[in-house]
Specification:
With about 100 residues, this protein is mostly helical. Helices cover about 85% and strands about 0% of the residues. The model has no long low-confidence stretch (mean pLDDT about 80).
Length: about 100
């Protein structure tokens, strides 16, 4: 139903229509790009906080933890993207 609505919106706007599989693939890619951008944003922000902490042990520790968690998040995003892409390929090729 949602795919039909999106398809009709695209066709009404003169854009090429896509199948439901293409929409799901595009949504998957978009969600992982957003997650990766957020993880990189937190890495850069925490790096800035670390550099500007001025030797304050509390701020340095907090920035270090943020860097650790953002790095773990980025690794999880990359691994989950790889896994889901692999599953999508198996589902479409029928291995």
């Amino acid at each position: 139903m949602i795919f039909d609505i999106l398809s009709s919106i695209y066709s009404d706007a003169g854009l090429p229509t896509t199948g439901s599989g293409d929409v799901m693939k595009n949504l998957k890619n978009l969600s992982f790009v957003i997650a990766a951008i957020l993880a990189l944003y937190f890495l850069v922000t925490a790096g800035y906080q670390y550099v500007t902490s001025g030797g304050n042990a509390e701020k340095t520790k907090k920035a270090g933890q943020t860097i650790l968690y953002a790095s773990i998040g980025l690794i999880l995003v990359i691994l989950s993207y790889t896994l889901i892409t692999w599953v999508f390929k198996i589902g479409t090729t029928g291995v």
